[in-house]
Give the backbone structure.
Amino acid sequence: MTTLSTTVFRLATEQDAIPLERLINTAFRNDTTTQVYLSTDHERIGVTSVESIKARIDQPDFTVYVATNLAGELLAHGSVRKLDESIAWFGMLAVDVIFQHRGLGSQMLAYAEDFARRELGCTRMELNAVNTRVDLIAWYQRKGYREIGVTTPFPYEFHGDWNGVLRDDLRFIHFGKDL
């Protein structure tokens, strides 16, 4: 079994896209609460695709990174994007279900914050979370993130035949933290 003390952070490559698609979608589908999904039929709803992952990896303003074990197996995914001279955006944190609740998400967030400060020169990190994900929101708040008074609609159009699978009251709440 892989221990988290052997975690390696690196930039994602296009070769990572297929295993990342599986990791990200599995991690997001692992939510067995009714915070996002209405039924267990959510296996057919995808959060991302191989093409979408490759597009983000190829975007010059995105930094897509992964955590691996020493054997190179993907354990987690995250991305950072510079919004302006002082603000970076953290997105799509996904941890392999085997490694959830073991501190890897905290390591991924800390890596993103350090990267934003060190490589991008940013002094603030912002992110969003689905309004009904109370456990995730509480986790970000424990990490120092606070609501900034902005919400945006949930992109149902990217989730195919979502009716009856996803709650219809979803939206994103935006959070920020000075680094």
Summary: The chain is about 25% helix and 30% strand. The chain has one domain: 4-178. The CA atoms of residues 113 and 174 lie 16 Å apart.
